Structures are given as C-alpha cells and as structure tokens.
Amino acid sequence: MNANVAVENTPEKSLWNDPTVSVTARVDALIDAMTLQEKTAQLYGVWVGASEQGGEVAPHQHDMEEAVDLDALLPTGLGQLTRPFGTVPVDPALGALSLARTQTRIAATNRFGIPALAHDECLAGFAAWGATAYPVPLSWGATFDPDTVRRMGAAIGRDMRAVGVHQGLAPVLDVVRDARWGRVEETIGEDPYLVGTIGTAYVQGLESAGIVATLKHFVGYSASRAGRNLAPSSVGPRERADVLLPPFEMAIREGGARSVMNAYTDTDGMPSAADEDLLTGLLRDTWGFDGTVVADYFAIAFLKTLHGIAADWVGAAGTALRAGIDVELPNVKTYGAPLTEAVADGRIPEALVDRALRRVLTQKAMLGLLDPDWNPLPAALDKADLADPAALRGRIDLDGPENRALARTVAEEAVVLLSNDGVLPLARPRRIALLGPNADEPTAVLGCYSFPQHIGVRHPGTPLGIELPTLRDTLAAEFPDAEITVARGTGIDDGDLSGIREAAQVAREADVALVVLGDRAGLFGRGTSGEGCDAEALVLPGAQQHLLDTLLDLETPVVTVLLAGRPYALGRAVEESAAIVQSFFPGEEGTHAIAGVLSGRVNPSGRLPVSVPHRPGSQPATYLGARLAHASEVSNIDPTPAFAFGHGLSYTRFDWADLTVDVQEAPTDGEFTLAFTVRNSGGRSGTEVVQLYLHDPVASVVQPVQRLVGYTRVELAPGEARRVRVTVPADVASFTGRDGRRVVEPGKLEVRLAASSADRRLTVRVTLTGAERQVDHTRRLHATFGQEPVARA
After folding, report:
1. What backbone torsions phi and psi does residue 213 show, to the nearest 5 degrees?
2. Which among 585, 594, 593 has a CA at the least distance from the CA of 444?
3. Are 548 and 439 in contact (CB under 8 A)?
4. pLDDT at 7 > cutoff 70
5. Report field, pTM of the whole predicted structure over 0.85
6. Cβ of 473: how many Cβ atoms within 10 Å?
7. For 106-140, what is each residue's pLDDT tens digit?
8. Which residues is 694 bridged to in the sheet?
C-alpha cells in the first residue's frame, strides 16, 4: 500500500493491535498504512511539563526552540514526550494523572491510537520532585559493587514505571579522561572496566523494571580538549576502541540496553550525530544493537548551528537520519516539516524514514503501547477518584523507607577514607569545630541532575520535596554529647576571606576541626561542578584552599571532608591533615554515611574511581597511561597522583598471602587461575576490595602500564580469612593491534593483585603461548572470582 494513501476500513487495519501476531508483522502492517507525515511524527518528541493540577501536560517553552502547537501536531501522532516530570515541580500522583490524560488525548487524536513514549532523566535517581536523590554515578564507581548498583537501578526503574514513564536517559558511560570536565560527577570513573561493569549493572536494574535504559554519550564526550564541555575530541582510533567504547559494548551485550544517545562532540572533525560508521556500522552491523538511537538534546540542529556540516535543517535531518539517529529530542526541529518536505520531493529517501520508524514502533510494540488493552493510567492510580485531583496529592511516594535505606547503603559504600593518622574514628570528642561552606548546606550532597539542583533552583518558593539533613544535623545525632560549633569560613566560590578568622578561632577552641569543602552542583556556570561547569585547574574553588591552609597552621587536628563532583588537589592537606574523607555528591542519605564513617559506625570500604591529583595543573592524567604518560626525567611536570585510582583505607587491616597459579603458560585462547588468601587481621569487620591489573611488558603497540581487568569485594569478620580464586581468560589481555583488529598476542604478562593501582600486594608472571589470535565483541570480558572460607588458625 502506498504510504501516502489513507487506510480503508478493512480487517487488516487492526493487525498492528493484535498481540498474538509477531511484532515484525504488526510493525510492517502499521508502517504500510501510514502517511509520510504520520511516519515522521513518530520520530520526534515534544518537551512538556506535567500539570500540578492533574490536567494535561503543557509544552515547555525555552530559549533554544520555538513554541510548540500540540493541537497542530497530534493528529498525525507523536513519538515521545520529553521529561514530563523533570521540567517543573509536580506531585508524583498528579503528574501521573497529567501524563495519563495527555496520553489518552494523544492516542485518541491520531488514526492508529498510538500513544507517545515518555522519557525522563534518571542519572542519580528519577529526576522528579519528591523522588529519592541517590548518590551520583561517581559514587557508584567508588563502591566497586555492581550488585548494590543493580538493586538501585531496579528501584529507580520501578518508581519511573509507577508514574507512567517508559525510558530513562542513563547511565553515562563516558570514561573520565580529564577531571577538569564539568560532567565528571556524572561518570563512573577513569577506568573502562569499572565504568562498564558498574554501568551494566545499573542498566540491568533499570531494564528489569521495564524501563528502556539509554546509554550516553556515544562516544568521546569525556575526551574533549582541555576538559571543556562540547569541545572537539582528539582521541585516536585505538584510544577510542580500547578505552571509550568497551563500556558501551558491555552494557549492550550484557545489560540489554534498548537505547543509545549520541555524544555532542566531534572526533577528528566527525560529529557523533553524523557518524554513520559509528551509529550504524559499529553499533548495529557489528555489535548487533537493535534498539533506538535517540539524539542528545538539540544534537541534530547542532549539525547546522555548532558543527557547520549542514547548510539547513533538511541537511541536518538527512545527515543524522542516514547516520542512524532514529528520534529527534527534545523537540521537533528537523524531523518534522523539513524532513517530511525533503522526503516528499526526493531529497531524502523514504527508506531511511522507514528504517528509523521500524525501530521506534518495534520498541513501542514491545512496551505494550500498541496493544488493544493498553491503559495509560498507572497501577498506582487504579481505583482512585480521578474526578478530585486534589485528593490524589501524596498518593504516590517516590521516596519511601526502602529507597532511603538503599540510598544510604550506596552512600556508605561510596565514602572513601583517603588518609588517617589515627584520629578517625573520632573518640567521643567534647568539642567539634564544624567548618567550611558545605558544613551546614542541605544541597551539598546533590549532583547537577538531581531534581532540586536541576529544576528546583528555578522554583525557589517550592519545597525541596525530600529530606536533606546537613552534616551538622547528622553529626549532632552521631555525637549527642559533643558541643558542635559551626563557622562557614568562606563560600564555595565567592573568594570571601572575611570569615576565615572566625573559623580559625572556633577551631582553636575545639578538640577536632572538621572542615567540609567541595563543590556546588549546577548547570552552565551556575555551579562549580556539573554540565558546563568546567574547571581551569583542579584547585579547590574560591578561597577554600586558603581556609584549609589556615586551619592546618593550628594545633587542632584537622579532618578534611569533601563533598564534591570531581577530585581536587589538596595541597598541604595531603601530608598535614589528620585525615581526609572523600565523598562524591553522596545523595540524600550522604551526610548520615559521612557521619557514620567519622564516628566509626561505618567502616569505610569505598575506593577511588578517579585519581586525586597531587598538583592542580597536571591534567589531563589518569592512571591508565602508557609509560610516557607517567613521571619522567624529560618533563618538569609530574602527574603522579596524591592518591591513586582504587585507593581507600579501612579501620581494620587486611593481609594477603599464599598466592598460587595453576599454570605458568596458557594458550592465547586459554585461561589461568590464581588463588590467594585475604585475612582480616584487625579488630573489626570490614571489606577489602581486591583489584586485578594486567601489565603487558612488550606489545606490538604502546599499552598502558597497567589496566584493571577485574575486582571483587571481600567481606571479613575480625580474624576471618577467605581463599579467593580468580580465573583469568586470555581474552582480557586483548587490545587493538596495528591494523585496527582486536588481538590477543603471545608473550609474557604480569598479573598484579592490588589494593589500588599503586599498591600491589601479590604478583605473578604468566606466558601466553601459540599464535596471535583475533577476537571481537563476543570475546570473554571478565575474570571470574570465587571465595571460600579458610579455617581459623
């Protein structure tokens, strides 16, 4: 049937609504029945905000798009609704009602009864008013705990589904290459294996709840020059293949992610939104991805306005569609009238529209949006009195006790104890000086994509929607007998020195001084961390270092506590602070976690997902560097970090011993198994994080000095020991060779069992034998760990 001819009232018309028919047949029938305008309408979204009164959503007006006329758009259908909950503060139950009413209108207005797919942000929890604010992804990385992150992802997904959302724009799988980049807080760390395993666990959690997980940003965003947002990326094909791509590969293969979002940046002159080799050749043809590729917000228009590779909206639409972007977000700009007109007059093949449409409709069919019994009303509003919207207020709780308990678990596991001269845990101090700009600031625990920092700041009269106890509050509960005196000292970035003298006086009169420093999350320069909040150097913002140095000059022991979105050089504090506690925006339960670590109620088990620099100007530098990237005699700049990737202390002591290996040689398609004993020789229960690194001393192309290929958490009671076994397949030693193929080369390998990238505990050398072997995306990705108890001596 011609796609531009109206459908006659025949029995075949309803084939797409029949769930007993294959999805392929349903989608084919629907595409065959659609006009061109009905097709393109499924390929874009409209940015809306749910109604606080429970009425239909209202189009969101913003400075990057023209006003949207829903009445004009809806008769041909609508592909997506953009951020109904993440645009304005709205009670969750009233927002769910608003979305349901809008979906009813959308389905009733178009010929085929197709509702929109609703998406929202979920970077550190569902970005909705009143929803749990979990720790940011950089804290997920600090846990080295995929199981807990998977549970968190499932909880977030359940909350999103409870109010009618289908797709979540997370996780961020960008690997940190330069910590000056403002979006470091959104990443999981500087190592691709850590990013891949933690990110995949989050995807598995979201997808288990029925939410379409969206991997972003594909690919190269985090490698922008000088850490500047949207700056060009200068990575070569080997760095791209071996560092930036593996997390996406893992999350698609093992996580089952059903959507991918392009990166804004260009790599060597090719914007990701225009890169057919990337979005179609690699992602689909090689990796077999069959989900949807959605545009990062305004990315298709940026091909004209920022990248300058399209002369008009038609050129931008055709380029993106040909590359493989299926859905334009957040609004209709290029995939509406410009695309329709260009297809109608033959400038863009209709086959490209049909290709994208097939992916979009397949996803809608699998979500049940084409089924005859589809109901826009979520189960949480079932049997509710919808005639009285005001009575619904508070009916849906997105921040219940189970969520808060899980948020606290993640936060506790993510706190990293960087240094400790024995002052921690605090032994019932009588007088505590609580100092610094984040000491008594409720939002200091939140990242830039939390609802209060992302949306709430634009609505100052609206309550936060969640409880955010300050560190002052939680310390008072943790140390009820202590006198706690608070002095701000200085602001986050105002450079104000006027309060430093008062802070010093308060510290002089205390038994211990807790100085709480770090960031304020924001967007596009409104914060010191977050999207568009890049740093020129990794020095603490404002006058915070001045405050810290002043306090270090005193006799009172100083414990430095960081609530930040990136690592910072801490100057004298590295050597002179009595202890340093690092936390990366730990979410609504974060101050409870920090207070617990300070008191000893929580034995810290967090490990650094990013290196902490020794000097503020040594970027870009990560542990994952080749020999020339590390300190040498031919440069006066020493990038050696103050605290290395994977570092973290405990209040107990772990001993590692008795390493054995089953074979000294293994073929390039084989494996070898190591075994060793980890014992808690201290006086309290704790968790050791065993990290497995590979060092390849001689390879056909330059390799990192070492790279993480596995890890596991080992929980031990005092005196308890476990025999840890790890089987290492030769595949994990693969890398991209001279001709661009991924290979496993024969030769010697050094296997390092370590407590951090700078703290090797046990080392063994093995040799891979046989011929060089080519591998691909089906290779084995993991070393496998097992644990068994060891009898007490």
Report:
1. -80, 140
2. 585
3. no
4. no
5. yes
6. 16
7. 999 999 999 999 999 999 999 999 999 999 999 99
8. 707, 751
